[in-house]
Amino acid sequence: MSFEYQETFGARIRQFFTELFGSKLVARLEEDILRLRNDYDQRLHDKDVMIAALREEKALLMSKITVYEMTIMPHASRTGAEVVAYQKPTKPSFNFLEMPPEKSRWQKVQEEHDARMAQELAEEAAKKT
Predict the structure, then answer these.
(1) Which residue has the higher pLDDT, 5 or 62?
(2) Cα-Cα-Cα-Cα dihedral sign, residues 69, 71, 74, 76
(3) Alpha-carbon distances of 66 from 52, 55, 61, 63, 84, rounded to whole Å
(4) What pTM was estimated for this model as a whole?
C-alpha cells in the first residue's frame, strides 16, 4: 500500500514539474523576451540613424552660415571684412552613408563562435600536415 502511495506522489511531482517548466506560459514569456530584445535593438539602430541625420543637418546648416558670413559680413561692415579675412572656412563633408542594421547580441556571439571553430579547424589541419 505504501509503495503505491509513493508512486502516485512521485507522479504528482513529475506532473508538477512538467506543468511548471513545459507550460505554454513559459513559451509565451520566452517569445516576449525575444520580442523585447529585438525591439530594443531596433530602437538603438533607429537612435543611431537619427543621430547621423541630425549631424548631417547640422553640417549643412553650418555650411550655409559660413556662406552667409562670407557674403554678407564683408559688405555690411569694415570689422566684418577683417573677421572674414582672418578666417579660413572649412569645407563641409557630406559623406553620411546608410547605416546597416545593427547585429543582435546573438548574431555577434554566433559569428565569434564560427570564427573560433574555423580557427580550431585550421589549427587541426596544420597539425595533421
Answers:
(1) 62
(2) negative
(3) 21, 16, 9, 5, 10
(4) 0.42
